[in-house]
Amino acid sequence: MKKALITGVTGQDGSYLAELLLEKGYSVFGIVRRKSTLDYGNVEHIKDKINFIYADMTDIVSLINAMRISGADEVYNLAAQSFVQTSWEQPVATADIDAIGVTNMLEAVRIVNPKARFYQASTSEMFGLVQEIPQTENTPFYPRSPYGVAKLYGHWITKNYRESYDLYACSGILFNHESERRGKEFVTRKITDAVARIKLGVLDCLELGNMDAKRDWGHSIDYVKAMWLMLQQDVADDYVIATNETRTVRDFVNIAFERAELPIVWEGEGVNETARRKDNGKIVVKVNERYFRPAEVEILLGNAAKAEKKLKWKREISFTELVNRMVDNDLLLVEKEIKNNAK
């Protein structure tokens, strides 16, 4: 039985990856931070199948201990301060976790079991002010946020440990991937949650930032399969994981409202752009400058040809199905919330 250690196990990707590895017969260990009360997050439904270890990405001693306890054959480093907007407010904390934390985990692997295979969750945000379209493994990086900069350090230190210590260490340069388990602070989940609330009459209007920002969106279920595939290869390498399609935030909003059977029509442009319901004319979407980034990433579009060829990976969930799943899930959650509040 293979043993896997997952940092960030309670998050979106960590939970889907844990499910995948359990299905494949792995013994799964998950790192959690010690709090007054343990929050199992997205793995609440499988918490009895995961071996939890208390550790912290900023404490190398605890990570060394986690490696020894787990005896891990595979390490998936998914832990991060992953909200881009917060990285401007907490740049040092973001660097501690997303940059130095990766070095701590790599050192723990090198010290305890240098034969273990290591996966680093890199990000398309490293491309930032894109130098070419689409982006591949060879596209120069130009991060535009403290998050992107910290993640770029994590990406390069992983490559450095692979080349310096002959570790099996690889990075997945994952483009935006969402799901029903995405946190509400992310724009995609913010949209689907708001659409559900507008549909059910508990919210009047959704406020967003740059409606023209373009992203390459996929579903997390597909992307964690790519993580596993990367660690099953004969030689460690880095891969872009993407859908090869890009959509605007406005596109995401349109499909979400369509799924909720609330067709909308757009008016104005820039900060004055709004969307009205076709049935009653009420404004349901506004642009608010407070949600604009200090340095915007205008377009991300990945080319996953290398992963498709070498890993035999392919995306199965379309963009429209992704949005539909998220809206359907939030409609159920908000409806449940309303019923509970009425009791």
Provide an overview of this structure.
- The protein contains ten helices and 15 strands.
- By secondary structure, the chain is α/β, with parallel strands linked by helices.
- It folds into two domains: 3-178 and 217-241, Rossmann fold, CATH 3.40.50.720; 187-215 and 247-298 and 318-342, UDP-galactose 4-epimerase, domain 1 (Alpha-Beta Complex).
- The strands form four sheets. A seven-stranded parallel sheet has the order 3-2-1-4-5-6-11, with helices on both faces. Strands 8-15-14-13 form a four-stranded mixed sheet.
- A hairpin with a 5-residue loop joins strand 14 (274-277) and strand 15.
- Helix 4 (91-112) runs parallel beside helix 5, helix 6 (187-199) packs across helix 10 (319-342) and helix 8 packs across helix 10 (319-342).
- The radius of gyration is 20 Å and the shape is globular.
- The model has no long low-confidence stretch (mean pLDDT 96).
